[in-house]
Structure formats: structure tokens, C-alpha cells
Specification:
The chain has 262 residues and is of the alpha/beta class. It has nine helices and eight strands. The protein has a single domain, classed as 3-Layer(aba) Sandwich (Rossmann fold), CATH 3.40.50.1820. It has an eight-stranded mixed sheet with strand order 1-2-4-3-5-6-7-8, with helices on both faces.
Length: 262
């Protein structure tokens, strides 16, 4: 069973979903932008067997409070604020796409609190990456139009990253995107401005970097990312793409196996 709650943080109320047994350090799941906890809907039951799983809505997204300054630093501060409010000291951490970048910053801020880290489809952001991203077209930002055709455009922009015959998954993405409209692109901008090269060396825990072979954005980043985390292990989800829901079973299997090591 998945339960829901809110916690007060310095950035406002943060919404979260949780499941499993509330004993021992929990696993925290961080979603990509502009998603919500719903990205992990299929993975949570698989990961909650015998452990406590918490999937927050990053501040500014989902049902969490809107924020005025979008940055990876603020997102990480909000997640750590949530865990403080919930009385969580040590925890395992997993993030997908933007959630992985937020996880890097959370580890840099609280290295002694994170036991193990899973970075799923996480880009490596340095000066060269920031320059490339500065000229890259917006992914989800479309101009609102009176006839509603911008909704079709948003659907079409994302459809290429979703498996055929799974319009249900794309519908869930669009629902999350509209929930934060018109701030739908802020998370991508926050990633593009992040100075990861100054923070990634502060990660002190064991790390698993997971790449999805059919993810055109993140899979090419698997090599550069792991090069900057010398102690990291790697795993590839063959055929996996941008939406984590599509590969939830394999993501959960890899994550559970990694976290279960002594």
C-alpha cells in the first residue's frame, strides 16, 4: 500500500509517497523533471518489500509547494529538509535524470547521511555541458495558445521518448507537466546551470550508475559520469528509455540488489 503525506520544510510543504516497513534507513526516490512521485508508481511496490521507501515531489513540482528560485541546490535543500522533518538521519538514495543530479547535490551536502547511491540516467554537468545546453532548444516549454494546440505540441514533443502503445505513460507525464505549467522547463534549466564538477567529488558512499540504452539524452553520459566517480559501479538496462515507468522492474531489481549488499 502506498501512503501519502506532507512535511513542513524551509521551502514550504513537501508532498511525499511512502510504502513498506518503517524500520531501518529508508530508500529515497527522486524523480525527473517535470514529473512527481508518480514516476516511481510501478517501482515502489517492488522496492518496498522489507524496507521503507519514500518518494517525494521535489519542491516546485507535483503537489509540493511552488518555489520562486529553481536550482539543484534548492531542490536538494528541500529534500533534506523533508527528511529532517520526518526524523530521518541515514538513508539510501536513488535519482532518475534530474533526480540523479539532485541526489549528487544531496550527497555533497550530507555525505555522512547517505549510505548508498543509485544514479539512474544521470547526466554529468561541467563547463562544456553547460555551454552545450545553453544553445539546446527547450524540451517541454511550448507557447500557450487559445485553441489549446500547445497541449498537442507538448504531447508530440515527448511521444518520441515513450514506447509505442503506451499512451497511458505519456498521459501521466502530461498530467505532471500541466500541474506546474508554465514553469515546466525550470528543472531542465536548473540542471543546465549546476556546477556538478565542483560537487561530485564529495560523494563518499558506494555508487551504482545505471544507464538505459535507448535513452538518447542520458545514455551517452554514463561514461563521463562514472569517470568522475572512480568507485562507482555501472549497469545497463538494455532497451530502457527516458521514462522510468517503462523499465521499473529492471530498475527495481538492480537497485534492490545493490542496496542489499553488505
Amino acid at each position: 500500500m502506498i501512503r501519502f503525506g506532507y512535511a513542513d520544510t524551509p521551502l514550504g510543504q513537501v508532498h511525499y509517497a511512502e510504502s513498506g516497513v518503517r524500520t531501518g534507513p529508508p530508500l529515497i526516490l527522486l524523480h525527473q523533471t517535470p514529473r512527481s512521485w508518480d514516476e516511481f508508481r510501478e517501482a515502489i511496490p517492488r522496492l518496498a518489500a522489507g524496507r521503507h521507501v519514500i518518494a517525494p515531489d521535489t519542491p516546485g513540482f507535483g503537489a509540493s509547494a511552488r518555489i520562486t528560485e529553481h536550482s539543484i541546490e534548492n531542490y536538494a535543500a528541500g529534500i533534506l529538509g523533508l527528511l529532517d522533518a520526518m526524523g530521518v538521519d541515514e538513508f539510501d538514495l536513488a535519482g532518475h535524470h534530474t533526480g540523479g543530479v539532485v541526489a549528487v547535490e544531496a550527497c555533497a551536502r550530507a555525505p555522512k547521511r547517505v549510505r548508498r547511491l543509485v544514479l539512474s540516467s544521470t547526466p554529468y554537468i561541467d563547463e562544456a555541458a553547460r555551454k552545450r545546453r545553453a544553445s539546446r532548444p527547450a524540451i517541454d516549454a511550448v507557447a500557450e495558445r487559445p485553441d489549446g494546440s500547445h497541449l498537442t505540441e507538448l504531447w508530440r514533443r515527448r511521444a518520441a521518448f515513450y514506447p509505442g502503445g503506451r499512451s497511458d505513460l505519456l498521459t501521466r507525464f502530461v498530467r505532471d507537466a500541466l500541474r506546474v505549467w508554465p514553469d515546466v522547463e525550470h528543472g531542465h534549466a536548473a540542471v543546465s546551470a549546476y556546477r556538478m564538477e565542483e560537487r561530485i567529488g564529495l560523494i563518499a558512499c558506494p555508487v551504482l550508475c545505471v544507464g538505459a540504452s535507448a535513452d538518447p539524452y542520458a545514455f551517452p553520459e554514463l561514461g563521463p559520469l562514472t569517470e568522475h566517480i572512480p568507485h562507482a559501479e555501472t549497469a545497463v538496462i538494455e532497451g530502457g528509455g527516458v521514462p522510468l515507468e517503462f523499465q521499473a522492474a529492471e530498475f527495481a531489481r538492480l537497485t534492490a540488489a545493490f542496496l542489499g549488499r553488505t
